[in-house]
Amino acid sequence: MRRHQTRTAYVFLLVPLVFFLIVRFLPTLSALRLSLFDWNILKEQQPFVGTENYERLFADEKFAQALKNTALYTVIGVPAQIALGLAVALLLNKIQGLRGLFRALYFAPYVTPIVAAAWVWQWLFSPQFGPVNTFLIWLHIPPQNFLTSPTQALATTAALVVWQNLGFQIVLFLAGLSAIPRSYYEAAEIDGANGTQAFWKITWPLLNPTIVFSVVTGTISYLQLFTQVVNLNFTDQGGPLGSTTTVALYIYQIAFGRFQMGYASAITVVLFLIILAITLFQLRFLTRRYDL
Amino acid sequence: MTTTLPKPEARDSAGDPRPRRPLNTPMLLAYAVLTVGIVVTLFPFMWMLLTSLKSFQELFNLSFFPESPTLDNYRQVLLETKFVVWFGNSLLVAGVTTASVLFFDSMVGYTLAKFDFPGKNLIFILILSTLMIPTEMLVIPWFVGVSDLNLAQSTPGAYFSIMFPGLMSAFGVFLMRQFFETLPDDLLEAARIDGMSEFGIFWRIALPLVRPALASLAIFTFLGNWNAFLWPLIVIQKPEFRTLPVGTALFNGEAGTQWGLIMAASSLAVIPVLIVFAIFQRQIIEGIVLTGMKG
Question: Where would you find the membrane-spanning parts of this chain (chain B) (predicted)?
Answer without folding.
Answer: 28-50, 83-110, 122-145, 157-180, 259-280
